[in-house]
Amino acid sequence: MGPGADPKPMSSANARVRSPERYEVIVIGAGLSGLYQLYRLRQLGGSVRLFEAGDGVGGTWYWNRYPGARFDSESWTYGLSFSAELLQEWSWKEHFSAQPETLRYCNYIADKFDLRRDITFNSRVVSAAWDANANAWECGFADGRRARARLLITAIGPLSAPTLPAIPGVGDFRGEAYHTATWPHQEVSFADKRVAVIGTGATGVQTITEVAKSAHHLTVFQRTPNWCAPLHNGPIDAATQARIKASYPEIFARCRESYGCFIHDADPRNALEVAPEEREAFYEKRYGEPGFGIWMGNFRDILIDKAANATITDFMARKIRSRVREPALAEKLIPTNHGFGTRRVPLESGYYEVFNQPNVRLVDLRKTPIERITPNGIVTSNAELEFDMIIYATGFDAITGAFDRIDIRGRGGLRLKEKWAAGPRTYLGLQIAGFPNMLTLVGPHNAATFCNIPRCIEQNVDWVTELLRYMGEKGFTRVEPTEAAEDAWTEHVYESAARLLLLEVDSWMTGVNRNVPGRQKRTFMAYAGGAPKYREKCEEVAANGYDGFMLA
Ligand SMILES: Cc1cc2nc3c(=O)[nH]c(=O)nc-3n(C[C@H](O)[C@H](O)[C@H](O)COP(=O)(O)OP(=O)(O)OC[C@H]3O[C@@H](n4cnc5c(N)ncnc54)[C@H](O)[C@@H]3O)c2cc1C
């Protein structure tokens, strides 16, 4: 079962009647957020239990074992920074670590800090209800167990609720079928197989590049082409490793000051202020550099000014044309409904060259949509294609999906899913009016979505831990934001994004997912004012005695 699979009905009558386990704090999710939160809560004392749906730690890196899965963040900026010892002990092998190494890293953290003894695996939370009389949350698990705690901290992940395409017959296919986010733990071979990949987002691009190396034949089903940029990954040699380890304080200080906590920060110039030849040379330089520099380290106005954006969009289109031999095919791979950077930019390692291979074909779903999946393959509006394997790289019900898959009920039985029906409403992306004592790490309207996420995880967790320490010191047992604070923050979140071109584009960042009912209208999922401003606001709220929160 996948990380966000729909809850199964309770199976054990015995489990249902058993009295709930009791803790002071329950954390849901054993990704990096949950692991670091558990570590920090231990320092406060008190009983803490972390519940995780999977049978191991790592979250994203536990579930997403698909071929080619790896970081877009530089590995040495992604790792947790709280322990100098951990930073010195762990040696990243590549500048952009592949999933197996990152999963080993997560396990290393769990072992080093002896975290497993407070984690219960194979425990999918299907409900969470606030009991005002007891001042406690009661969580229900898929197998009927229950657990209670005064505080509930969700660390359930921004990209942890996978979605299948809304195509008739998805369950009918008789060959091998995989979703990238629930990839099997054993090796999958593509040799001698006719493989279909549906989806060309960041995950699809990584998967396609890898599968094309060994599949007998690969068919890529593309609905929306994306603007992909080269990753330029490479191994970390001994001298570079030593330099990285010696400069962690500077690396993290630099990340701390940048908009998205990446090592890249915007160039202070506007694109159109620069002479065309100089601009071209600048784009060429960024295109040749590793990581998100071309997106996050570009001219400051390319994501807010259409004319500026057109210059980089045109540059990227020319790059695709220069890399794909057949002109008509290149045109199919060039996005026409959004400018560069207004959707998540997939980073690639030879993606466009895959389409020069004789064993690869592209099906443009804008021209010939999929009509249904059959026991033998896929039927489009003009062909019936047979396959041995279908890979769904169809992504996630992002940001709010993992919340929606738990029946969360706050004060007076208020359902979170209903409260958020027209888009999330939160205070600081960390708490929700009507849901006392529930704190949401990396939740919607937090800065974390546009972040090199562990940098924002550390900020979120440290802030929450300080809040709990403060409550303990003052003898408070309940915390909840005021409606007014929530309204003001929600409005501020929308203002923060008002100038961004991405607001005009359907994507998971604007809350649109055509495979999920009720997700067809644009909302806004993330705070877009940047991590430094977000951090300042959180610090100001804490310094003012947790302004906007009701403490009792
Ligand atoms: C393929 C991929 C590549 C990525 N690459 C990058 C990158 O390069 N840089 C970057 O900054 N970010 C990247 N991300 C985002 C990534 O999700 C974050 O970096 C980070 O791992 C989030 O950690 P987390 O602990 O908040 O959530 P997760 O790692 O998603 O962990 C959440 C955990 O909660 C569990 N859970 C959820 N619901 C329940 C429930 N109801 N009951 C019990 N358990 C539950 C899940 O099983 C999961 O283990 C990537 C994401 C994906 C999918």
Outline the structure in words.
The protein has 552 residues and is an alpha/beta fold. The protein has helices at 13-17, 32-44, 60-63, 75-78, 84-89, 99-112, 202-211, 238-246, 248-257, 276-287, 293-296, 306-323, 327-333, 351-354, 401-404, 416-419, 453-474, 483-497, 531-543, and strands at residues 21-28, 48-51, 119-120, 125-131, 136-141, 146-154, 176-179, 194-198, 217-222, 229-230, 347-348, 360-364, 370-373, 377-380, 384-386, 389-392, 407-409, 438-440, 479-481, 549-551. Strands 1, 2, 3, 4, 5, 6, 17 and 18 form an eight-stranded mixed beta sheet that branches. It starts with 12 loop residues before the first helix and ends with a strand. Flavin-adenine dinucleotide is lined by residues 3, 28-34, 51-54, 59-60, 62, 64, 69, 71-73, 78, 124-125, 155-160, 203, 402, 406, 442, 452-453, 457.
Structure keywords:
552 residues, alpha/beta, eight-stranded mixed beta sheet, 19 helices, 16% strand, disordered N terminus, binds flavin-adenine dinucleotide
Write the layout of secondary structure elements.
Layout lengths: L12 H5 L3 E8 L3 H13 L3 E4 L8 H4 L11 H4 L5 H6 L9 H14 L6 E2 L4 E7 L4 E6 L4 E9 L21 E4 L14 E5 L3 H10 L5 E6 L6 E2 L7 H9 L1 H10 L18 H12 L5 H4 L9 H18 L3 H7 L13 E2 L2 H4 L5 E5 L5 E4 L3 E4 L3 E3 L2 E4 L8 H4 L2 E3 L6 H4 L18 E3 L12 H22 L4 E3 L1 H15 L33 H13 L5 E3 L1
Parallel strand pairs: 1-2, 1-6, 2-3, 4-17, 6-18, 7-16, 8-9, 8-16, 9-12, 10-11
Antiparallel strand pairs: 4-5, 5-6, 13-14, 14-15, 19-20
Helix pairs in contact: 2-17, 17-19
This protein binds flavin-adenine dinucleotide (FAD).
The site of flavin-adenine dinucleotide has 36 residues, from helix 2, helix 3 and helix 17.
